[in-house]
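Study both lines:
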Amino acid sequence: MTAYSRENPSPRYRELLDLYVTMHAHGAPEQGDRAEDMFAGTSLRPHVEAIGHLIRGTGARTLLDYGCGKARLYGAPAKAFGGAPGATLQQHWGLDEITLYDPAYPSHDALPTGTFDGVICTDVLEHVPEDDVTWVLGEIFGYARKFVYLNVACYPAKKILPNGENAHCTIQPQEWWLERIADITAGRDPIQTALVFTDQVHAPIAKSKGLLSKLFGS
């Protein structure tokens, strides 16, 4: 089996990336989705307080949003999600810097450099081809110094891609994802990791390896 990577992603990854670039630019008119609303980044909203808990608990000052889409929520007033009137999401979280990355959106498609106190990835991993999940997870954890927050949908999306396929190309149970995260985190310095699935939420924990070893008895 070919070991894919950032430098050599699978053909499927390249194909899907091209589709997402097109959808960002032109929307999905056949589904009634305008370009400006396509992958707007507002699905981050339900996770704002949980992420804030991690930020405060770890003393994080910098954050990477990996797969941010159009990142519209960062420009919305914080009162939209329970914050102080007039504040931004960055101010609500008390961060010095937020870096936005999405390979399919030109405004945010520059690959980040360096590391960050926290890395969040919401409504993204289920869009990654199964052959590329390992290197994408490795990249996410490689960017993080203090915590990682992952949200994974384990069900088909409502959205259909221009080629007729479901937008969630990797639909797996949480145990499948936990096994891959366990492989990625093995041997790394432990950091706080929150794993949010459609049917269960794991609260932030001090050592990701600790939780995973309990689950799998390793």
Summary: The radius of gyration is 17 Å. The longest strand covers residues 144-152. Residues 137 and 181 are 7 Å apart (CA to CA).
